[in-house]
């Protein structure tokens, strides 16, 4: 019989850093509120959650790597909102954020969660920040707890 490991969704005793993009703050603040709500509901104490603001989504990976490499956090959650415009800027920012966040996780071994909305319109962003399409901030927080607990089982 195979041994199956799954990360629990109990956050008690975990320490999480949430890195949030200030760009499109009318969306990212909603994502942050959802993430903080879930982290509290799942047992993290207020003192075990750190919020770090960065200028934009492109800066998320750098701050995430600093947090992950510090040894102070069991997981890092990156929250941002990249909304397509009329230029190729969207692809550079969204792609750079995604690749950088992946790289921060792989280089540090700490779960770094991609909670960055990449959408075409403001309406789509708001719909994913607590609207009809769910709450990606909440989902990112749950993923952080699950991955941090799975990491403890595997190491």
UniProtKB/TrEMBL annotation:
Pathway: Cofactor biosynthesis; riboflavin biosynthesis; riboflavin from 2-hydroxy-3-oxobutyl phosphate and 5-amino-6-(D-ribitylamino)uracil: step 1/2. GO terms for molecular function: 6,7-dimethyl-8-ribityllumazine synthase activity. InterPro entries: LS, LS/RS, LS/RS_sf. It catalyses: (2S)-2-hydroxy-3-oxobutyl phosphate + 5-amino-6-(D-ribitylamino)uracil = 6,7-dimethyl-8-(1-D-ribityl)lumazine + phosphate + 2 H2O + H(+). It comes from the Bacteria. Keywords: Riboflavin biosynthesis, Transferase. (2S)-2-hydroxy-3-oxobutyl phosphate binds at residues 86-87, 128. The active site is at residue 89. Its EC number is 2.5.1.78. 5-amino-6-(D-ribitylamino)uracil binds at residues 23, 57-59, 81-83, 114. Pfam families: DMRL_synthase. Catalyzes the formation of 6,7-dimethyl-8-ribityllumazine by condensation of 5-amino-6-(D-ribitylamino)uracil with 3,4-dihydroxy-2-butanone 4-phosphate. This is the penultimate step in the biosynthesis of riboflavin. PANTHER family: 6,7-DIMETHYL-8-RIBITYLLUMAZINE SYNTHASE (PTHR21058:SF0), 6,7-DIMETHYL-8-RIBITYLLUMAZINE SYNTHASE DMRL SYNTHASE LUMAZINE SYNTHASE (PTHR21058). Belongs to the DMRL synthase family. This is 6,7-dimethyl-8-ribityllumazine synthase. It comes from Tepidiforma bonchosmolovskayae. The lineage of its organism: Bacteria, Bacillati, Chloroflexota, Tepidiformia, Tepidiformales.
